[in-house]
Amino acid sequence: MRVSVIGTGYLGAVHAAGMAELGFDVVGVDVDPAKVEMLSNARMPFYEPDFEPLLETHVGGRLHFTTDITQAASADVHFVCVGTPQQHGSLAADLTYVDAAVDALMPHLADGSVVVGKSTVPVGTAQVLADRIRAEAPRGANVALAWNPEFLREGLAVKDTLHPDRLVFGVDAGEGGHAEEVLRRVYARTIAEDQTPVVVTDLPTAELVKVAANSFLATKISFINAMAEICEAAGADVTKLADAIGHDERIGRKFLNAGVGFGGGCLPKDIRAFSARAAELGASQSVAFLIEMDAINLRRREHVVNLVRTHLGHLPGRKVAVLGAAFKPDSDDVRDSPALSIAGALHLAGVQVAIYDPQAMPNAAKIFPTLGYADSVDEAVAGAEAVLHLTEWPEFRELDPAVMATQVARPLVIDGRNCLDAQAYRAAGWTYVGLGRP
After folding, report:
1. Which of 230, 336, 403, 426 could form a disulfide with 263 if both were Cys (CB 3.0 to 4.6 A apart)?
2. Where in the sequence numbering do the catalytic residues fall?
């Protein structure tokens, strides 16, 4: 079986390498020549642990990348992995890249081939595409469409590709089961070795699984951040609160870490697009809570800025060190990053910001070129009157507060991730401020 992957961004590149690891001949197709050249030379266009070894193993063998869509013509399965960003001036998803991918692929579809959507799309999109493919595929070509949503976690994308916790196959009931059969062949090794559960659904249910999962996670994160707001008002400790309720097996402790909230290229835009699509379907009241979840998430960023103002008073001219730029550790993704949002707000208030991140500095500088960047933690904190811990990189948790206290102008740390050792910092003379903690 030969596989094509249309779109080699974060999702597509990792998926292409994963399919090669599973034993398939794979061609990855993208319109960006620079990205294709990097991947063709087994170089990562983004940071993702464990990804580069897969490229080095398979590029030039089972895996190659191209800008020529005609090289996908001989594939049996075509995975559509392009982005669906938020529309400008709207909460809705932009399907331009999905439509363009299907348009480019259409003349090269062969009889019996299967188009598999992995992009996160508004519910109803798959059926529209299935109808288009049925009507416009080359004459005599019987082509099926399926939806196989991705559940990648940045920093764990290779693991989630090769050893997913579940597989969802959305299929069109009218096409006779061919698409499900092909997907079971594609993932046969994963299903057999990991006993991975397979959930077979109709097309709209498969589309909803991804946005429903992301919405639930966003709700859980936003809930504990709302509790942090109440704890701050009441003098309570949100970390102990989370521990206590997390022991309830119906709730669980995961994703109950209060802090500066979520970011990245998925959760924020997915819950907004979900809200917009629900409104189009006349079901806006059913997801009205997502608007408040988004608001809570954004409020935590403002809260950190206000904490800096509370402790430092007059902000113009002050130096503040920001530890972190990526929206999460083990990633160089700065899309909708809480850390950069906070740094940008402080910069606009006249603060001299010094940002350090182990991986995300180049991407951050492209988006926010006017912010200040340091080459190391030592350079960032030197002379700082506040240190903000905003991305949970392991190396930040391992910093020696006693040593760092000799480098700063004022030993004030605001722990936006609630994971530093508060006792150790206070013992070293720091004013330690955690979110939702007394």
Report:
1. 336
2. 266
